[in-house]
Amino acid sequence: MNPQTAQQMNPFQNNEIIVLILAIALCVLWFMNRESFSKIPKSGHLSVAMILLGASWFFTVLEGFVLPELLNLIEHICLTAASAVIMAWIFMVFGTQSDSETESHNPYHITGSHHE
């Protein structure tokens, strides 16, 4: 059997299955440690992002069997939404400090004036 025929018989790539297995493992670990996870500020947003990423990986595998164009579109919508949620989380958690607060917590910030 030539590689092209084998690829036609296998509707998805092996790496897609590995990513889906890792996503399922991540969800199990998240569920088992949800109490610790909830201590992260605005953790609900991270949960939504993780669900969207998991859904995108699921749709990646599913598109090999049915409705490839539609499921590919849904996969990319999920990825885009997950990215937007993560970006919003970053701004909510780290972007709310004033510059003076940020400078005081920045270990690389050098106080005083510099004259050369």
TrEMBL record:
Keywords from the named record: Membrane, Transmembrane, Transmembrane helix
Transmembrane segments: 12-32, 44-67, 73-94
Domain of life: Bacteria
Protein name: Uncharacterized protein
